[in-house]
TrEMBL record:
Pathway where it operates: Amino-acid biosynthesis; L-leucine biosynthesis; L-leucine from 3-methyl-2-oxobutanoate: step 4/4; Amino-acid biosynthesis; L-valine biosynthesis; L-valine from pyruvate: step 4/4; Amino-acid biosynthesis; L-isoleucine biosynthesis; L-isoleucine from 2-oxobutanoate: step 4/4
Residues annotated with N6-(pyridoxal phosphate)lysine modification: K194
Catalytic activity annotation: L-valine + 2-oxoglutarate = 3-methyl-2-oxobutanoate + L-glutamate; L-leucine + 2-oxoglutarate = 4-methyl-2-oxopentanoate + L-glutamate; L-isoleucine + 2-oxoglutarate = (S)-3-methyl-2-oxopentanoate + L-glutamate
GO process terms (BP): isoleucine biosynthetic process; L-leucine biosynthetic process; L-valine biosynthetic process
EC number: 2.6.1.42
Residue stretches in coiled coil: none
Family: Belongs to the class-IV pyridoxal-phosphate-dependent aminotransferase family.
Listed name of the protein: Branched-chain-amino-acid aminotransferase
One Gene Ontology molecular-function label: L-leucine-2-oxoglutarate transaminase activity
PROSITE patterns given in the database record: AA_TRANSFER_CLASS_4
InterPro entries for the chain: Aminotrans_IV, Aminotrans_IV_CS, Aminotransferase-like, B_amino_transII, BCAT-like_C, BCAT-like_N, BCAT_family
Keyword terms: Amino-acid biosynthesis, Aminotransferase, Branched-chain amino acid biosynthesis, Pyridoxal phosphate, Transferase
Organism from which the protein derives: Halobacillus litoralis
Cofactors named for this entry: pyridoxal 5'-phosphate
Length: 353
């Protein structure tokens, strides 16, 4: 479909240092496309960033029919702008949409629109160490109706936000609370979809964890509260007695693109790695035997976030003396190196804008 571009006449000031608070500054333009049952997705356009006007009865406000994605554009040392495996984000967006009864987008067409948008906003991709341009595609149900049924109309949008380094002043391992009361997701639920309700339903557990000095929550399975699932917005990996273990995708775990990339790297490096069910009790037992060597969360935001301490029902597990592990560091350096064009992209993971 032809893409209509309306250029903004008031250009905003861009961040002048790496001190950029997450997700509060937005660029000059946004991408919008509409869906109507009889027209399908139509009218793709790039327009000046501005507030939306929506009917208060719009279905998004009432039953949460929405999905989103998160990826980044990186500034390479030589000035090029690179995306990291963006096709995987649109593939996952369609999986999330399917779960939420939202009509699919044409992944390749939307990829083209994203490239146009990032090209137009290229100067917004910051060059300071560790910074990037965060990309947030999302879809909302817009039909004005209180009927409990899928919306007949939708808006797909992409907004862009320059973001600072996840770790300022070096990577710091985090302390995480193992949640024993609240549930994030169950098999058959929406845990494998990036949809709004999965996150707001975790705020209480997050607040409880924060009160006790934890930076995040480690979720267990919703049925038995035994098996490890993932962190707030990160997948989780452990290195136990030389072997890397991550929970297998169970239907309630989000399939992270960083997770997939790490599995591919470890296999290539011939580091023993398994995706399987792992219980918190098994982890604790291995910990007591001194076998838990490293633990780290993975996601677009931090790439690798080492876990320095886990708190589970009053049991404290201190991992690698609150230091980043050797393998965690190697994975971090490799992935960020590819994203920044400093390491050869032998997997063909980056897309140059
Ligand atoms: C987005 C997200 C992740 C990480 O996915 P990436 O594609 O690696 O950024 C993990 N868990 C949850 C719940 C998420 O929302």
């Amino acid at each position: 479909m032809p893409l209509n571009i309306v250029e903004s006449t008031h250009k905003k000031a861009k961040p002048e240092s790496e001190q950029i608070p997450f997700g509060r500054t937005f660029t000059d333009h946004m991408f919008v496309m509409d869906y109507e049952a009889d027209k399908g997705w139509h009218e793709p356009r790039i327009v000046p960033y501005e507030p939306l006007t929506l009917d208060p009865a719009s279905m998004i406000f009432h039953y949460g029919q929405t999905v989103f994605e998160g990826l980044k554009a990186y500034r390479a040392d030589d000035g090029r702008v690179l995306l990291f495996r963006p096709e995987k984000n649109f593939e996952r967006l369609n999986l999330s949409s399917d779960r939420l009864s939202i009509p699919p987008i044409d992944e390749q067409e939307v990829m083209g629109y994203l490239e146009e948008l990032v090209r137009l906003e290229k100067d917004w991709v910051p060059a300071f160490e560790g910074t990037s341009l965060y990309i947030r595609p999302f879809i909302i149900g817009t039909e004005p109706s209180l009927a409990v049924a899928p919306s007949k109309s939708y808006k797909f949008m992409i907004i862009l936000s320059p973001v600072g380094p996840y770790f300022s002043g070096g990577i710091k391992p985090v302390t995480i609370n193992v949640e024993d009361q609240f549930t994030r997701a169950v098999k058959g639920g929406t845990g494998m979809a990036k949809t709004a309700g999965n996150y707001s339903s975790g705020y209480q557990a997050q607040a409880k964890a924060a009160q006790e000095g934890n930076a995040d929550v480690l979720w267990l399975d919703g049925v038995e509260k035994r098996y490890i699932e993932e962190v707030g917005s990160m997948n989780i990996f452990f290195k136990i007695d030389g072997e890397v273990v991550t929970p297998a995708l169970s239907g309630s775990i989000l399939k992270g693109i960083t997770r997939t990339s790490i599995l591919e790297l470890l296999k290539k490096w011939e580091v023993p790695v398994t995706e399987r069910r792992i219980s918190i009790a098994e982890l604790y037992e291995a910990y007591e035997e001194g076998k838990v060597e490293e633990a780290f969360g993975t996601g677009t935001a931090a790439v690798i976030s080492p876990v320095g301490e886990l708190n589970w029902l009053g049991n404290k597990m201190v991992i690698n003396d609150h230091e980043i592990g050797e393998l965690s560091q190697k994975l971090y350096d490799t992935i960020t190196g590819i994203q920044r064009g400093r390491k050869e992209d032998i997997h063909d993971w980056t897309v140059e804008i």
